[in-house]
Specification:
Blueprint (H helix, E strand, L loop, with lengths): L7 H24 L11 E3 L6 E3 H17 L4 E4 H6 L13 E8 L1 H5 L6 E8 L2 E9 L4 E6 L3 E4 L2 E2 L11 E5 L7 H7 L7 E5 L3 H10 L4 E4 L4 H13 L3 E4 L15 E4 L2 H12 L3
Parallel strand pairs: 3-4, 10-11, 10-12
Antiparallel strand pairs: 1-2, 4-5, 5-6, 6-7, 7-8, 8-9, 12-14, 13-14
Catalytic activity: a myo-inositol phosphate + H2O = myo-inositol + phosphate
GO molecular function: inositol monophosphate 1-phosphatase activity; metal ion binding
Keywords: Hydrolase, Magnesium, Metal-binding
Length: about 280
């Protein structure tokens, strides 16, 4: 619980471990018991054949909404499934109250297919600034965390992305073709050039983690949903990376961005890719 005169930074110093426990508890109770054990009635489609939702998504988000709200009274929760039910709840990201941005199962398609490439994403933002993030790959037993100004960590080890190795193509995870329009595909084709090796992304959260670890060089995405990006963008920033839109501006979780945008393991790579994307936007 936040004290009356406590800042968000002070709250994070005191309660980060409680947030970690809430994430682990939700995954242990609602996600992992259903991994590779989903019944047919526990899976449904939302907006299209590739947009899946499961009971694990819904129930984990409900559990996290209750736990996170209790940790920080006066905060609000913007969760993917709640926004799907009532799109107006997304507007809270632009408000003055601290907001928890939650994706209970990022990579639902992987989860449904029994692939361990999924994670739970939580970010705490205040007035449009992401202050902290948690990326929990439950099936892999990995937890990545970041607090603004304090660094990024994976299972307690500091993450430093570092610049790409010279002389090789940049590995860039891009919006999956199943989730892009023809126009978005056209713009993203700007990355099909010498020195760049684009590939379709999996879980956005795990792709951001790969950039923060220096295992991938960048991501390039064509959608704005904050629950997919907020946690990973801070993770990349705190590992030494940068993010830019095609207009050359940092991505804003409050929306209104020029798309696509990129997040890369260093500022020079971000500028290079944003330039390619901006030239065709």
């Amino acid at each position: 619980m936040i004290e009356e005169t406590e800042t968000i930074e002070e709250f994070l110093t005191r309660c980060s471990a409680d947030v970690e426990e809430a994430v682990r508890t939700a995954a242990a109770a609602e996600i992992l018991p259903r991994f590779r054990r989903l019944a047919e009635h526990e899976v449904a489609h939302k907006s299209g054949p590739h947009d899946l939702v499961t009971d694990a998504d819904r129930l984990a988000e409900l559990r996290l909404t209750e736990a996170l709200g209790a940790l920080l009274p006066g905060s609000v929760v913007v969760g993917e499934e709640a926004v799907h039910a009532d799109p107006t709840t997304y507007e809270a990201i632009q408000g003055d109250a601290p907001v928890w941005i939650v994706d209970p199962v990022d990579g639902t398609r992987q989860f449904v297919h029994g692939d361990d490439g999924f994670c739970t994403l939580i970010a705490l933002a205040h007035r449009g600034v992401v202050m902290a993030s948690w990326t929990y790959a439950a099936a892999r037993g990995q937890l990545a965390t970041a607090v603004r100004g304090r660094g990024a960590f994976l299972d307690g080890e500091r993450l430093i992305a570092g610049p790409p190795s010279p002389g090789r193509d940049l590995v860039v995870a891009t919006s999956h073709p199943d989730f892009t329009t023809d126009e978005q595909k056209r713009v993203l084709r700007a990355l099909c050039t010498d020195g760049v090796a684009p590939r379709p992304c999996g879980s956005a959260g795990l792709e951001y983690l790969a950039v923060a670890r220096g295992e991938a060089d960048a991501v390039a995405f064509s959608w704005e949903a904050a629950w997919d990006h907020a946690a990973g963008l801070l993770l990349v920033e705190e590992a030494g990376g940068a993010h830019l839109t095609g207009a050359g501006e940092p991505f804003r979780v409050t929306g209104g961005n020029t798309l696509p945008f990129t997040a890369a393991r260093d500022a020079a790579t971000a500028r290079r890719l944003a330039g390619l994307l901006g030239a065709t936007a």
